[in-house]
Amino acid sequence: MNRLVFSGKKVSVISLMILTVILIAVESCKKDDATVDKELIGKAEDLLNLLPEYQPGTYRNIDKLFSTRTIKRGGTVYELPKASDGLASVKYSPDGVNEYDIDEFISRNLVAGLLIIKNGEIALERYAQGNSETSRWTSFSVAKSVTSTLIGLAVKDGYITDVNNQVTQYLPQMAGTAYDGVSIRNLLQMSSGVYWNEDYSATGSDIGALLQSMIEERPGGILELLSGLPRIAEPGTIFLYSTGETCLEGEVLHAALGGESLCSYLERKIWSKMGMESDAYWVLESPGGQEFAGGNISMTLRDYGRFGLFILNNGVVNGEALLPEGWVDQASHPSPDSPQCGYGMLYSEYNNYPYPMYHPAGYGYNWWLMPDTEWGAWDYLDNTDWWGEYAIAASEEKFSYLKESFNANGVFGQLIHINPQENIVAVVWSTWPEALIDPKEYEMYCFLNAAARNLRK
Questions:
Q1: Of 132, 241, 250, 264, most Cβ neighbours within 10 A?
Q2: Measured in whole angstroms, how far is the alpha carbon of residue 98 from the centre of its chain?
Q3: φ, ψ of residue 60 in degrees (nearest 5)
Q4: C-alpha distances out from residue 294 to 77, 298, 409, Å
């Protein structure tokens, strides 16, 4: 064995060289780790058209793109125990031929979070795409159902005496606009008769102009946009989905509350009382300004579930009824005097829809409603011109376990599902590559129907 003998000086030099190499290697590893851990967060202007790799990081960090306001949790957490006999397996088939399980549903539908609560216990909880129990994920239009619930709270508290009150009673500056003569109820039902273009990919759409106003952080910019819209029908005669409509609900509510913020009201009426486990936050129109009532609250998966339980329990917390009697029933059923919101009518010729189609949903107060009978054929799911690679030959699923369920829906596959018949609340986070993909929505209901069937005792 050869031995190398160095003088003390030479050992110091060699040691220094070795140490330098080690430090470089360690620093290289640190950089590699930072690259792996770094969130890919998109730009605010790309929010509705993000590349897939940017969706998870952006949806977890929406507060890095827009101003927000915090909704603080209370001192006590509403416990959600794990069910002793949870949902171990699910088999479902969206096309009547191929059968898929839970893992395949998550991968096929690009699910980032999945929670099913049965009888107040967690039957299934899964996270994907970098999420965990502490991740706060943006809601998109799921927030509309939160806004309508705040309207219900304000009715119970006497801030709003009747949902048939006119918008101008609270916002006199809207007199002379297309919203003159429109009621709060019209807004809740998306039936103001005011024109709105909700095309998420179209240049020059109204939803695009709304997003641009928020990017520019212009105080009052959304209300200014709404004030310039034209009327195309009498209030209460047609359904036309409009994020602007719910933003106006928020403005009405803010005025009715005497200037209290929506976050503050939500915090003291639901967040603290319902025992949410984490702070949430809501995107603002501008720094310190009005909440974007049409979308983008961020909360944890379980807190979405707790909000769903609040609705499932008709707004009763520890024996206290926070919502008016019958409010959830009104919000979750099309009214007989509102045929434009009836089951299967939303995208029909009745509503002057340019491409009439059958979609089973009805519309209540910012909630999407499912019928208590067979859903019927969901049109165009197999149309490759519409849905491309996502098109499916849908099965003859009757959705027997989802009758009279209702949903808070957000683009790119966000959902709070309320199923009173089965005493179930489900939450789904997703990163669909396009804002609306009906075949994926259909598959989501196929999965939830099968899950409800498996959980029936």
A1: 250
A2: 29
A3: -80, -20
A4: 27, 13, 12
Q: How many CB atoms lie within 10 A of CB 404?
A: 15
Average pLDDT over every residue of 366-384: 92
pTM of the model: 0.91
User: CA 281 → CA 68, 93, 263, distances in Å?
Assistant: 6, 37, 8
pLDDT band at 208 (very low <50, low <70, confident <90, very high): very high
Express each pLDDT in 284-313 by its tens digit.
999 999 999 999 999 999 999 999 999 999
C-alpha of 361 from chain center: 17
Q: How far apart are CA 299 and CA 320, in angstroms?
A: 24
d(CA 326, CA 379): 33
* Lowest pLDDT segment from 6-20, 93-107, 215-229, 356-370: 6-20
CA distances from 75 to 105, 265, 271, 312, 318 (A): 36, 17, 10, 23, 15
Looking only at the bridges linking them, the beta strands covering 121-127 and 280-283 are unpaired
Reported as a pLDDT band with limits 50, 70 and 90, residue 1 is very low
User: pLDDT at position 397, please?
Assistant: 82
Sign of CA dihedral 306, 147, 113, 414: positive
